[in-house]
Design goal:
globular, 5-stranded mixed sheet, about 575 residues, alpha+beta, 4-stranded antiparallel sheet, about 55% helix
């Protein structure tokens, strides 16, 4: 998977694009604080941000050292320091510190902690929407719960709620954020991330089963602790809130680590899980419940170091981008930058024609735009492999057929981001818009074979013919298109109740699509439920040569003539509703 999206955040900020309308993702305008990409922003924001985080960490440690009187502090403090340094995403660190500050605010009656929590929640909201939204919900939930427990605190909580809302409103204006679009777009990205981006345990089976076994031990220990302590929760009212937030945090860590299963995801459940339980241990009021969570914390501490691909493949992001300043001399940095730029260099004869024009990269290699000094004008959902539902790909379609569409597109079919995923089916409505509003210009070879597409003066009308609806059954082959036809398909595959439960708790069930091409050869494709519902072209376009021919001819490629959807009947509804239509461009 490419990493050029990290540049796109900074490029969008530099261009003054509106987040939520012109640029849609879970990361927000302050996302560079998490990616540690200093393009256009310099290093000063990182220094200020890191000083702030370190001060909060010192605040946390000073309290922990006072509260923990037993030898367990010898484990807690080094663990906290090591795992803070080995974070995979800064927003999870912010979320962890936010939980501490909220609990501390209640226990110690500290308005300073509540003010810091309010500020941290706002910061998190603009770094990355998903945990930013959860942070806001937890903060609002705390204010509401505390008000219910003590009506005398209603005015104070209303004041902090107002501060939170006003800060978000001010920063939306200052950072160019369309709040409604930012929330709506972020929710759409989050909702179908499970369906499109999950990775099969089979791909990582060497260490998946080992880590899953460790996770089961922790889940069982947590379940025994919480269920066995239910009678105690009625004795101290705020302990209920602490346990509820801790369980939510553990669930989020588990989903982050086991949905898209990879080395970078492991810290979320195992390592941050220890933080969450440890923070709960600090603030739980009932002594017997506190002791039980102390034991659970010990389980996390004992198991975490055994997690495969944990610390060994993590990295200290708090040193980015300072480490290059410390460990590289200026000539090394210049040489490195020249090498990267050369890798993405496009023939100057071509880029000269693009000067003064706007450019996008399809499906995702934004580095070509940056390193050739071109004027970036992206479609809203900037990566095709994450434009995986109708809302996101429609945003892109509307951009590419609008007056503000980029003058040029650097086009390639692109590699698959996952096993069995069909790259050509990603963001298929953008492909439809390209066929309507762009002409093939030339082909060039850089780091990849690229097709340069140029916007037309007049958009091609879309002609639709032979519309038909059919109902397919899971496991049965159906005829969907014919040779020479450019067929657009929408397929509505529904999860069963059990499938929906699997999707919520861990990963969605696997749907595979067996495609038969017009020459008789077959291919197994990962069926992404939301992508199929949005619509795809039934064509064979895998190579760059096929991609070039497809855009040159406006849709000529071998057809997918038959499909078979396969999956467990326990996970999916038996019937699949399919709409088909043949399209052409006059």
């Amino acid at each position: 998977m490419d990493g050029s999206w990290t540049m796109s955040i900074n490029m969008a900020l530099h261009k003054g694009l509106t987040f939520g309308r012109e640029w849609v993702f879970t990361f927000g305008p302050l996302g560079f604080l998490s990616t540690r990409q200093d393009l256009y922003v310099g290093r000063l924001p990182f220094l200020i941000f890191d000083i702030f985080c370190v001060c909060i960490l010192i605040y946390v440690l000073s309290y922990a050292l006072k509260k923990i009187k037993d030898p367990v502090k010898c484990l807690v403090i080094p663990y906290l320091l090591v795992m803070t340094a080995h974070n995979s995403e800064i927003n999870f660190s912010l979320f962890t510190l936010l939980i501490f500050l909220i609990f501390h605010s209640h226990t110690e009656k500290s308005n300073v902690s509540l003010l810091l929590a309010t500020f941290m929640s706002v910061l998190s909201f603009f770094v990355k929407f998903n945990l930013g939204l959860i942070s806001s919900i937890v903060l609002y939930g705390y204010m509401l719960y505390e008000t219910v427990l003590d009506r005398g605190k209603a005015k104070k909580n209303l004041l902090f709620f107002t501060v939170h809302v006003v800060l978000i409103a001010i920063l939306c204006r200052f950072l160019h954020v369309d709040l409604i679009g930012y929330i709506k777009g972020g929710l759409h990205v989050i909702n179908n991330y499970n369906d499109a981006m999950f990775t099969s345990p089979y791909d990582f089976r060497r260490y998946f089963y080992f880590n899953a076994g460790l996770a089961i031990v922790i889940i069982l220990a947590t379940a025994v602790t919480v269920i066995g302590s239910l009678p105690l929760l009625w004795k101290t009212r705020f302990d209920r809130f602490i346990i509820l937030v801790t369980m939510l945090a553990l669930y989020l860590g588990f989903k982050q680590g086991f949905t898209r299963y990879s080395s970078s995801g492991m810290p979320y459940f195992f390592f941050y899980g220890a933080f969450f339980v440890g923070i709960a241990y600090l603030f739980i009021g009932h002594q017997q419940l506190k002791n039980r969570f102390g034991t659970l914390f010990g389980v996390f501490i004992f198991i975490s170091p055994f997690v495969s691909t944990g610390l060994g493949l993590s990295f200290n992001k708090i040193t980015f981008p300072y480490q290059n300043l410390i460990f590289q001399n200026p000539s090394q940095r210049i040489t490195s930058e020249i090498k990267i730029k050369a890798q993405y260099q496009i023939d100057p004869a071509i880029t000269n024609r693009m000067k003064g024009k706007t450019v996008d990269a399809f499906p995702f290699e934004i580095a070509y735009v940056l390193y050739n000094g071109l004027d970036y004008n992206p479609r809203p959902a900037i990566q095709s492999y994450q434009a995986y539902n109708d809302y996101l790909t429609t945003l892109n379609y509307n951009k590419y057929i609008s007056a503000s569409a980029p003058d040029y597109i650097i086009y390639e079919v692109g590699p698959s981001t996952d096993r069995f995923r069909y790259a050509f089916w990603s963001d298929a409505k953008s492909t439809m818009a390209i066929l309507r509003n762009y002409d093939y210009d030339t082909t060039t070879i850089s780091n990849d074979t690229l097709q340069i597409l140029k916007k037309r003066e007049l958009i091609k009308p879309l002609k639709i013919s032979d519309r038909r609806n059919i109902t397919a059954s899971l496991g049965k082959e159906i005829q969907v298109s014919d040779k020479g036809k450019l067929t657009w398909m929408k397929a509505e595959v529904n999860y069963s109740v059990w499938g929906k439960l699997r999707r919520i708790l861990a990963q969605p069930p696997i749907l595979l699509v067996e495609a038969t091409y017009e020459d008789g050869h077959k291919e197994i494709i990962k069926g992404i439920v939301s992508e199929l519902k949005a619509g795809v072209f039934l064509k064979d376009v895998h190579t760059e040569a096929q991609g070039a021919h497809f855009v040159k001819t406006r849709g000529d490629a071998p057809s997918i003539t038959k499909l078979r959807f396969t999956g467990s009947t326990l996970d999916f509804a038996q019937d699949i509703n399919i709409s088909l239509e043949d399209v052409s461009f006059e």
